[in-house]
Amino acid sequence: MQKQIKIKTLLIVLTALLLPMATSAEAQAPKMSVKAFNMHLALQEPKQYALQKMETYGWDKSQFVCLSKLWGKESAWNHKADNPTSSAYGIAQMLGEKNKHPMLQINNGLRYIEHRYGEPCRAWKFWRVNRWY
Fold first, then answer.
1. DSSP state string for 30-41
2. What is the pTM assigned to this prediction?
3. Is 105 helix (H, G, I), strand (E, B) or coil?
């Protein structure tokens, strides 16, 4: 019991000492705009960006499972994926896609899914039957 109290006290003291240092470093660090952050995230971690963006549509994580499978089959989440038999390009394999940046591809793909299917799991269901969406 005494040991737990000592450990908790030590943690409180360390937190009190380190917190001002972190806050100071945070204040001195250059700020990245939200758009720049999202562009970086989409380029480095497209699945993470898509999961974050799906929240704006009100879709939960179960919908992400379907989206991940759908775009995994379409492009393997490769923003440079090019379909040689059509004009489909990018992560979502949108026809006539001109955007090379994954953030724009994901945004366009999610808008398309919402407009045409309402949600990713319906798009995935359609894809499994037709091999396109």
1. PPPPHHHHHHHH
2. 0.74
3. helix
Residues 61-66: contacts with CB under 8 Å, at least 24 apart:
62/121, 63/119, 63/120, 63/121, 64/120, 66/119, 66/120, 66/121, 66/123, 66/124, 66/125
What are the b/e assignments for 96-122, b being 16+ CB within 10 Å? ebebeebbbbbbbbbeebbeebebbbe
Per-residue pLDDT tens over the stretch 58-105: 999 999 999 999 999 999 999 999 999 999 999 999 998 888 999 999
Distance CA 21, CA 18 (A): 5
Reading the block at residue 77, the tokens are 């989440």
Look up residue 101 and give its DSSP letter: S
| Residue-wise pLDDT tens digits, 42-70 | 999 999 999 999 999 999 999 999 999 99
| Distant-in-sequence, close-in-space partners of 127: CB < 8 Å, separation ≥ 6 | 70, 73, 74, 133
84: tokens are 């040689």
Among the ranges given (6-10, 20-24, 115-119), the one the predictor scored with the smallest mean pLDDT: 20-24
Q: Which residues neighbour 100 within 8 Å (Cβ) at sequence distance 6 or greater?
A: 79, 80, 90
